[in-house]
Structures are given as structure tokens and as C-alpha cells.
Design goal:
- A 6-stranded parallel sheet has the order 2-1-3-4-5-11, with helices on both faces.
- The chain folds into 3 domains: about 110 residues, no CATH class; about 130 residues, Response regulator (Rossmann fold); about 130 residues, Response regulator (Rossmann fold, 3-Layer(aba) Sandwich), CATH 3.40.50.
- The chain has 15 helices and 12 strands.
- By secondary structure, it is an alpha/beta fold.
- The relative contact order is 0.09.
- About 50% of the residues lie in helices and about 15% in strands.
């Protein structure tokens, strides 16, 4: 009789060990009470502690939480999501146990079930850029507040690295991608693979010229015209206008808008346009222009922060002041102009506003409600003291 009773008691203990040991606050009392009725209770307590250690070495699961509390997995899942159909008492028990066990949902399982990894990718030419820094910081905050995480990769302006990064994004099964192409990207086969993998892509800032893609851009043409209007209004006579890579759509738009507006509204103003693909090249070309005593420009226009940095260095090295010796106006995110006194006059192109619009567009894209074509973020003139 005693052997039979011990047998069933041991089976009961094994069952407890296997399904409720991870819920130690709820099971300890019952387990030790059962151990007292065995012939060798210390041995079973030893087994209990060993299995407890082994159990704690693995991550708690939703199934363990459900088994510990004697409820179904679906009930535990809905309780964690604060579903109103689950009673307040049950919800609190589940939440308390999940917190005690440091339970975290299995991201891979959720991804497979919902086909949404809640993970976005950001691909940029370089992180060492104030505009992209502003864009990333704003987008990361918006994503975090909406339950998304982000992966950031930089292409170093190399199409080969760009293609490898796109492969990494696909392997990580991201829910969507925000991409700024390199200055050398000419064909989009690597991005077509994203489409084949059903990963939506929102291009921003430096975007392909194809009008059928989903893009978010700053008001590049309007920004160029605002800068031109300011120069005309200040009665300037000689302008050196520095633009970026001539192959980029952003350069083409700003160049066309600026030069066309100058020609139409003030054909008497002499405008010299040059291209620079880096801050250093901008410094070199600005230096050459301002050292030409006979044809020195009275105004510098820089189409981006990268070019503005090079132009500012050239002015400083040559001991020229703004606006006394030469006027200065730029298209900028606003960070660099505010570092100087007097503050540099600029047409604002906000990374924050671009990020906000990009996220809205991505949500529409995921819901199949986003039409093809560009979304334009407006620009404003910020008056400083350099022109």
C-alpha cells in the first residue's frame, strides 16, 4: 500500500516539476508539502532544485506561463495584450508572472505569425552627416513610439556596399526600408529584389529619377528659387553658386530652379555655377574663386550643408568675413548655420519633417494605400546675418 501510494505521489511530483517549477512563487508550497509524505524527502527536494536550475537556464515561454496558472495559451496571450475579454484578476496574474519570469515574446514566432517583423531598415550614404543624423534621430523616435525598431546601415556611397546591405535587410526580414541612394547608383536591380521579397521601399532625399517609385523629397525646386529671390532682393551682382554631384536628381532640381529663376528675374546678375562632390572639393573651388581679385564674387550660394562646410573653411583660411567681404546663403538643415555669428541665412530643408512624412508614407504603403510618385516636404527661408 505504501509503495503504491509513493508511486502515485512521485508521478505527481514529476508532473509538478515539469510544468510548474518555473512558477516557483505559486508551486513551492504544494511541492514541499508533498515531499514531506515521501520516504526520502531530501532526495526529491534535491531533484527539485536541480530541475529548477535547468528550467531557469532557458527562456520562459507563453506556454509555461499558461501551464503554471492553469489557463490556456490563448488566454495568457490575450491577457498580456490587455484584452477586455479577460478578467482583471486573470490579467493581473498573467502580467505579474510574466514580469517575475522576465518573459519576452518570441520575435521570430510573432514575425512568422503576423508577417510583420516590426523592424524597419534605414540605408544612407554616411552617418557622418548632420542632415542624415537629424533624419535618423527623428525617424527612430517615431518608430519607437509606434512599436517599431530600426536597423541602420551605410553604403559609403558605394553601389556594391549598397547591394550587400540590401541583401542583409532581406535576410533580416525587415517590414520596410527607407533608402537614400548613393551618388553612383545608376540601376535599381538590387532594389527590385526588395520588391520581389514584398518589402516596401520609401526613397528619401537622394532618390532615383523614376517617377513611378515611392519617394519623399524636400522642396528642392522651391528651395532653389527662394535662395535666388533672396540674392536678387539684396541687389547682389556676382554670384558663385556651388552645387553637388551633377548626376544626382537633387542637384539637377536645385540647379535648374536656381539658374532659371536668376535668368528670368535678374538677367543682369553674373552667376557662375560649379560642382563639388565633397566638402574638400567645395573648399578648393571656393578658394580659387575668392582669390581671383578681378572677378571675386560678392555672394556665395551653397546647395547643401556638405558644400557649405567647404566654403566656410575657404573663407576662414583666406580671412574673409560675412557679410562684409562676401555674402553667404545656403540650403541647409539648420544645424551648421546656427553655429556661427552672425548666423548664416539659409533655406531650411528639415530632416525632422522629412522623417515624419516618410513614416506616414510607409504606414500607407504597408496598408496598400500609398499612390506612386513623390511626396514633397515644404521649405522656408530662415533669415540670418550673412547676406
Amino acid at each position: 500500500m505504501h509503495l503504491q501510494q509513493d508511486y502515485f505521489l512521485r508521478k505527481s511530483l514529476i508532473y509538478q516539476l515539469n510544468i510548474v517549477v518555473s512558477g516557483i512563487p505559486y508551486s513551492t508550497y504544494f511541492f514541499f508539502d508533498s515531499c514531506k509524505r515521501l520516504r526520502n524527502p531530501l532526495l526529491w527536494i534535491f531533484f527539485y532544485l536541480v530541475i529548477l536550475i535547468l528550467k531557469n537556464m532557458s527562456s520562459p515561454t507563453l506556454k509555461k506561463i499558461a501551464q503554471t496558472l492553469g489557463i490556456s495559451v490563448s488566454t495568457a496571450s490575450r491577457a498580456l495584450k490587455q484584452h477586455p475579454d479577460i478578467s482583471v484578476v486573470t490579467r493581473q496574474k498573467v502580467l505579474d508572472l510574466a514580469k517575475t519570469l522576465d518573459y519576452e515574446p518570441n520575435a521570430n514566432a510573432v514575425q512568422l505569425r503576423t508577417r510583420n517583423s516590426k523592424l524597419f531598415g534605414i540605408l544612407i550614404p554616411t552617418i557622418a552627416n548632420q542632415f542624415y543624423d537629424s533624419f535618423i534621430a527623428s525617424l527612430e523616435e517615431i518608430c519607437r513610439n509606434n512599436g517599431y525598431s530600426i536597423i541602420i546601415l551605410q553604403s559609403a556611397n558605394d553601389p556594391a556596399i549598397e547591394a550587400e546591405n540590401l541583401k542583409l535587410f532581406r535576410q533580416n526580414r525587415i517590414s520596410g526600408l527607407f533608402a537614400c541612394i548613393t551618388a553612383s547608383t545608376r540601376e535599381l536591380s538590387a532594389y527590385e529584389k526588395m520588391d520581389e521579397a514584398a518589402i516596401p521601399v520609401i526613397f528619401f532625399d537622394k532618390v532615383p529619377p523614376d517617377e513611378h517609385l515611392h519617394t519623399v523629397c524636400l522642396a528642392d525646386s522651391a528651395a532653389g528659387e527662394m535662395a535666388a529671390d533672396t540674392i536678387i532682393r539684396k541687389n547682389k551682382k556676382k554670384v558663385l553658386a556651388l552645387f553637388g554631384d551633377p548626376q544626382m536628381s537633387i542637384t539637377k532640381k536645385r540647379l535648374a530652379a536656381f539658374t532659371n529663376h536668376m535668368n528670368e528675374k535678374a538677367p543682369g546678375i553674373a552667376v557662375q555655377t560649379v560642382h563639388a562632390i565633397s566638402s574638400e572639393e567645395a573648399r578648393i573651388k571656393t578658394t580659387a574663386a575668392i582669390q581671383d581679385q578681378q572677378n571675386r564674387p560678392d555672394t556665395l550660394f551653397c546647395m547643401s550643408d556638405e558644400i557649405l562646410i567647404g566654403a566656410l573653411k575657404a573663407l576662414q583660411v583666406n580671412g574673409l568675413r560675412t557679410p562684409e567681404d562676401v555674402a553667404l546663403i545656403a540650403i541647409s538643415n539648420g544645424f551648421i548655420p546656427k553655429l556661427f555669428h552672425p548666423e548664416i541665412t539659409y533655406v531650411e530643408t528639415s530632416g525632422q519633417k522629412l522623417a515624419e512624412q516618410a513614416f506616414v508614407n510607409m504606414q500607407l504603403f504597408l496598408a496598400n494605400q500609398l499612390p506612386e510618385g513623390p511626396s514633397i516636404v515644404s521649405s522656408v527661408l530662415v533669415e540670418g546675418g550673412t547676406i
